């Protein structure tokens, strides 16, 4: 759910005026119940090393300083956007589900299984991210192996 939250938020900025007020209220309840703020924080934390790698490529001799500053400055700055992101996500859900449908989802999350699902989300997000990265790397390597001869014909070196 957290990955979907980030994708939905990055996709476009939704406004509360576009949705039924009762659906928006139910969506906000769902966001609170599912601890979406914590999920976004986890995503931001997982994104920070990627930003650090980008900055370290430009500033190769400043790795430790970059990591320290990102932890001290970038994460707090990103966290300021959580309320806006929650509003955007709630509006997206409200546009796609009626208040009654959201009530059904909320009812599920209030069950023991729903609570377990919510509680396991941080660990699941980490594991799914790792699995997705590993799969993506394998897929890219396999694809490069397949297309390497065509790339080499065009004078493009392939490190495989």
Describe this structure in words.
The chain has 160 residues and is mainly alpha-helical. Helix content is 82%, strand content 0%. It contains seven helices and no strands. Helix 2 (21-33) runs parallel beside helix 6 and helix 3 packs parallel to helix 7 (112-153).
What is the topological layout?
Layout: H1 2-11, H2 21-33, H3 36-58, H4 63-79, H5 82-96, H6 99-109, H7 112-153
Helix pairs in contact: 1-3, 1-5, 2-5, 2-6, 3-4, 3-7
What characteristics describe this protein?
disordered N terminus, 7 helices, mainly alpha, single chain, 160 residues
Strand content: under 5%
**Percent in helix:** over 70%
Number of strands: 0
Biggest sheet architecture = none
Our Rg estimate from Cα atoms comes to 20 Å
Helix and strand string, N-terminal first?
A: HHHHHHH
Overall outline: extended
Q: What structural class do you assign from the helix and strand content? A: mainly alpha
Total number of helices: 7
- Mean pLDDT level: 87
- In the predicted model, the low-confidence regions spanning at least 5 consecutive residues are 2-16
What's the N-to-C terminus distance? 35 Å
């Amino acid at each position: 759910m957290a990955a979907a939250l980030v994708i939905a938020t990055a996709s476009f900025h939704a406004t509360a005026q576009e949705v039924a007020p009762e659906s928006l209220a139910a969506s906000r309840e769902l966001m609170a119940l599912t601890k979406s703020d914590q999920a976004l924080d986890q995503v931001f934390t997982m994104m920070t090393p990627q930003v650090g790698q980008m900055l370290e490529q430009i500033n190769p001799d400043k790795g430790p300083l970059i990591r320290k500053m990102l932890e001290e400055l970038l994460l707090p700055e990103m966290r300021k956007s959580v309320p806006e992101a929650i509003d955007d996500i709630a509006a997206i859900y409200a546009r796609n589900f009626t208040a009654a449908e959201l009530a059904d989802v909320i009812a599920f999350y209030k069950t023991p299984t729903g609570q377990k699902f919510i509680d396991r989300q941080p660990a699941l997000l980490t594991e799914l991210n790792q699995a997705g990265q590993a799969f993506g790397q394998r897929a890219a390597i396999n694809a490069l192996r397949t297309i390497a001869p065509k790339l080499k014909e065009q004078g493009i070196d392939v490190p495989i």
